[in-house]
């Protein structure tokens, strides 16, 4: 098979990573509720308590919380105490995650290439990951192997690009920072690597190392129907390209897992159902216009992901009722891939 199971030490630290990452994200969320500051302001001879903060557009706002009184003084004191505790908890969790990353590196658990991991984290921070943008293509395999507790052969996961599937049916809104008034996907990529530039192909950005980011969407059977092509309104931003077959992914349920990047740090990845991935990759591998070397890799990825589902994801049976977004002929053609290989059981009482 094109993958192998994690050993017991790796399994243990993978579980530890997931639990600590969940605690870290909770600490980040709590600290985020204390953004801005509570300040006293003089207005026409009266003192008021105000909260100063940046809104989603990046503009500084202030909200009055009332005249100075015992109640507003108590509120300011409680807010500052809560903020101090939240920041202390966050710092403690950061130190914990740094130690966990070192353990993960020692156990060779790091999988997701750093440039791809940074892009995925930037999408998460912007509120787009799983909210209009999902990871498809080769990088989605890291989601499936993380969920199953396996490692796929690097020969079929190595990649110099990342595909971002945009759901053109819904309104996407990117969370702004204080420095950016009109956020764009290209601007988001610049935070990861300032060398990213849009290419002559408007759906693609490339950095100085040749790493590609493609913004893609499904090709509709009614191409005249108007739908979103960009995340925002800026015409200079990346504009998604329509590709046949992606409607299966668009209509598939989310599939997410906590993977680990090359430096040992966990990250959340949201992709689509692995059964749809395998069926789609098998179909892509049969397209006559596809380059032969890519067709072989597509087929290998389809086999690997289908085998992971068959051997490690019994809760995801390959059944037509659950996968009607896949054309029936393609569903049937992919079905043999999901037969568990002979001899996949184990006599090891500690294997799980």
Structure characteristics:
352 residues, alpha+beta, 9 helices, 38% helix, 20% strand
What does this structure look like?
The protein has 352 residues and is α+β, with helices and mostly antiparallel strands. It folds into 2 domains: 1-109; 111-338. Helices cover 38% and strands 20% of the residues. It has helices at residues 8-32, 70-106, 114-125, 141-148, 185-192, 246-250, 274-285, 292-312, 328-334; strands at residues 3-5, 37-43, 46-54, 60-67, 133-136, 150-152, 161-166, 197-198, 204-206, 212-218, 241-243, 254-260, 266-272. A hairpin with a 5-residue loop joins strand 3 (46-54) and strand 4. Helix 1 (8-32) runs antiparallel to helix 2 and helix 7 crosses helix 9. It is globular.
Helices and strands in order, then pairings?
Blueprint: E1 3-5, H1 8-32, E2 37-43, E3 46-54, E4 60-67, H2 70-106, H3 114-125, E5 133-136, H4 141-148, E6 150-152, E7 161-166, H5 185-192, E8 197-198, E9 204-206, E10 212-218, E11 241-243, H6 246-250, E12 254-260, E13 266-272, H7 274-285, H8 292-312, H9 328-334
Parallel strand pairs: 7-10, 10-11
Antiparallel strand pairs: 1-6, 2-3, 3-4, 5-7, 8-9, 9-10, 12-13
Q: Shape, please?
A: globular
Question: What is the N-to-C order of secondary-structure elements (H for helix, E for strand)?
Answer: EHEEEHHEHEEHEEEEHEEHHH
The total number of structural domains is: 2
The helix/strand class is alpha+beta
Helix content: 25-40%
Give the number of DSSP strands. Answer: 13
The biggest sheet, with number of strands, parallel, antiparallel or mixed sense and barrel status, is: 6 strands, mixed
Provide a count of the helices.
9
The fraction of residues in strands falls at 15-25%
Radius of gyration: 24 Å
Distance between the amino and carboxyl termini: 18 Å
Poorly predicted runs: 176-181, 345-352
Mean pLDDT: 90
């Amino acid at each position: 098979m094109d993958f192998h199971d994690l050993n017991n030490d790796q399994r243990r630290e993978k579980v530890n990573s997931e639990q600590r990452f969940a605690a870290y994200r909770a600490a980040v969320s709590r600290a985020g509720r204390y953004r801005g500051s509570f300040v006293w302001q003089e207005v026409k001879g009266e003192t008021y308590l105000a909260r100063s903060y940046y809104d989603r557009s990046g503009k500084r706002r202030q909200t009055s919380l009332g005249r100075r009184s015992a109640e507003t003084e108590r509120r300011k004191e409680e807010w500052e105490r809560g903020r101090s505790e939240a920041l202390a908890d966050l710092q403690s969790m950061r130190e914990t995650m740094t130690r966990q990353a070192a353990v993960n590196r020692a156990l060779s658990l790091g999988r997701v290439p750093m440039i791809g991991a940074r892009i995925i984290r930037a999408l998460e921070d912007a509120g787009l990951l799983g909210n209009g943008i999902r990871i498809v293509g080769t990088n989605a395999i890291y989601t499936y192997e993380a969920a199953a507790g396996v490692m796929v052969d690097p020969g079929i996961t190595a990649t110099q690009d990342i595909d971002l599937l945009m759901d053109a049916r819904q309104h996407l809104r990117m969370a702004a920072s204080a420095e950016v008034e009109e956020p764009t996907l290209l601007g988001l990529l610049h935070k990861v690597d300032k060398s990213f530039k849009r290419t002559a192909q408007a759906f693609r950005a490339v950095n100085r190392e040749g790493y590609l980011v493609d913004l893609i969407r499904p090709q509709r059977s009614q191409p005249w129907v108007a739908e979103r092509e960009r995340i925002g309104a800026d015409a200079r931003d990346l504009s998604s390209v329509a590709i046949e077959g992606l409607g299966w992914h668009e209509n598939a349920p989310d599939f997410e897992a906590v993977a680990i990047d090359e430096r040992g740090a966990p990250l959340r990845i949201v992709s689509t159902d692995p059964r749809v991935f395998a069926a789609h990759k098998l179909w892509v591998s049969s397209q006559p216009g596809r380059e032969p070397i890519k067709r072989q890799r597509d087929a290998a990825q389809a086999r690997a992901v289908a085998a992971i589902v068959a051997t490690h994801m019994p809760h995801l049976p390959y059944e037509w009722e659950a996968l009607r977004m896949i054309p029936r002929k393609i569903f049937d053609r992919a079905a043999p891939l999901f037969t568990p290989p002979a001899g996949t059981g184990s006599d090891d009482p500690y294997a799980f």
